[in-house]
Amino acid sequence: MADAERKTTFREVFRLAEFRAVWVADLLSVAGDQVTRVALAVLVYAKTGSAALTALTYALTFLPALAGPLLGGFADRYSRRNVMIVTNSARAVLVAVMAIPDLPLPALYALLIVVQLMAAPHDAARGALLADILDGDRLVVGNSARNVTNQLAQMAGFAFGGGLAALINPHVALLVDAASFTLAALLVAVGVRSRPAAATAGSDGPSLWQSTRQGLRLVAGDGRLRVLAVLAWMIGLSVVPEGLAVPYAAEIGASPAAVGLLLAADPLGMAIGAFVLGRFVRPERRVRLMGPLAAAAGIPLLVCATKPDLILSMALFALCGACAAYLVVVGAVWARIVPDRMLGQAMSLYLSGILASQGIAIALTGLLAARIGSADTIAVTGVVCLVIGLGAALAWRRNDSPAKSPNEAA
Question: Where does the protein end up (predicted)?
Answer without folding.
Answer: Cell membrane
